[in-house]
Amino acid sequence: xxxxxxxxxxxxxxxxxxxxxxxxxxxxxxxxxxxxxxxxxxxxxxxxxxxxxxxxxxxxxxxxxxxxxxxxxxxxxxxxxxxxxxxxxxxxxxxxxxxxxxxxxxxxxxxxxxxxxxxxxxxxxxxxxxxxxxxxxxxxxxxxxxxxxxxxxxxxxxxxxxxxxxxxxxxxxxxxxxxxxxxxxxxxxxxxxxxxxxxxxxxxxxxxxxxxxxxxxxxxxxxxxxxxxxxxxxxxxxxxxxxxxxxxxxxxxxxxxxxxxxxxxxxxxxxxxxxxxxxxxxxxxxxxxxxxxxxxxxxxxxxxxxxxxxxxxxxxxxxxxxxxxxxxxxxxxxxxxxxxxxxxxxxxxxxxxxxxxxxxxxxxxxxxxxxxxxxxxxxxxxxxxxxxxxxxxxxxxxxxxxxxxxxxxxxxxxxxxxxxxxxxxxxxxxxx
Length: 432
Fold this sequence. Notes:
The protein contains 16 helices and twelve strands. It has 432 residues and is an alpha/beta fold. The strands form two sheets. It has a seven-stranded mixed sheet with strand order 3-2-1-4-5-6-12, with helices on both faces. The protein has a five-stranded parallel sheet with strand order 9-8-7-10-11, sandwiched between helices. Helix 1 (17-27) packs across helix 15 and helix 3 (61-72) packs across helix 4. The longest helix is centred in the middle third of the chain and has 31 residues, at 185-215. 44% of the residues are buried. Mean pLDDT is 87; it is low at 408-418 and 420-425.
């Protein structure tokens, strides 16, 4: 144990994933503890491992974290999502104290992968600083076809609803907790319950609208909406809010797209109706004078709308990766991991709707293979099978002397670095 490391866990994916990962690290000789902010954090953490509750306000968090790091000899912190206010403070403090920060996120390539990086994710990922020659500079074997469903959706909803329920019931024990959402935990729990009760009607509505779009002889452009309460989305959104983004997309479509084309807005599969998206879309379409050319689909599988689409527009959705794989033109309002000249279009939005520029197919396949060889790990956070797949690989990854993109990319040429990383991943998979 003396030679092991000390991992401090912060907030993670809903459910038992962080607890299972901690047990795996402890089995290998490391020490694990958790700083918890809600009763949900406490319930999903093993009773046999140390737990430090943070029960005061966010203003006290940096001092408490610094004290935990010093008192416990913390060498590593582990967290999910790098844009929550509490996590941003933790990452700043980790850098100042020389503590390694392990960051998890939903897979850049969904649904059967999860993202593991160091120091940041999404727009803050080390991937953003890697040159194009590294991430798109080789010709890999063509990867497998992307699946046509999102992943462990039912398990995700179950653990999310349970976490919110437990957290709401125990809110009195953590009076200083301030969620990174606009609404409180109890209100969010009520939204989840209402969503579950509406599920049958929503499914029928979604199927009918999707079928009508696919039966139409009119080309359609797909706009992927994201979760309005997601901290990473909020940080990336260049517009005032989601309604302003929808209005901008609709107005530019009305001004530039061919008159017989349709614009289809698709809600995120986990959208909980905290925003009246259908009404917002109708208002934007009416204001732009194209009410007859705009459609709204409440969530559901992405593949059925991608197949046959003319292009995809989004803020920063990872769903755009499936569009790029299919060779569809993609326009992203924010800087994303796929914001590369050969991948997402750098046109203005009106120019994009007029004549969308498709991605370079070979460059995207190289980029996808690079991700699969580095930061994308098979498995998931929410199903038992997915957790097992991830946890087989993660302890060794977390203990490694460098992150998934290697100690540096400056010491090799782009192609050599990428081939080196691919070789490491093949060796890892062969030994599984």
